[in-house]
Design goal:
By secondary structure, the chain is mainly alpha-helical. Helix content is about 80%, strand content about 0%.
Length: about 90
């Protein structure tokens, strides 16, 4: 019982951290309309990594709600950053 509760709390924490890690940069980029300090390569690698991790986790463990939520919502966060990047970049 206690172990299950600890696992759920840790699942919430890691989901929040993975999903939210790009949002400070997204907010800053929208606010300043500058993406000069954004590494678009990191964003594309993150999207690729989240997709690969989702497929790996599904094949390895079957459907796991925590892992699916983590990888899908994290990928959406990075996709938003990519959209913001291409909207505000200066050529």
């Amino acid at each position: 019982m206690l172990l299950s509760m600890i696992e759920n709390i840790l699942g919430l924490i890691y989901n929040a951290c993975f999903i939210g890690c790009f949002w400070p940069q997204i907010y800053k980029s929208i606010k300043t309309k500058s993406v000069n300090d954004v590494s678009i390569t990191l964003c594309w690698m993150s999207i690729t990594g989240y997709c690969a991790a989702l497929i790996y986790a599904f094949l390895r463990f079957g459907f796991d709600a925590w892992l699916c939520a983590n990888y899908i919502l994290s990928a959406i966060s990075v996709i938003v950053m990519v959209v913001v990047y291409y909207k505000h970049r200066t050529c």
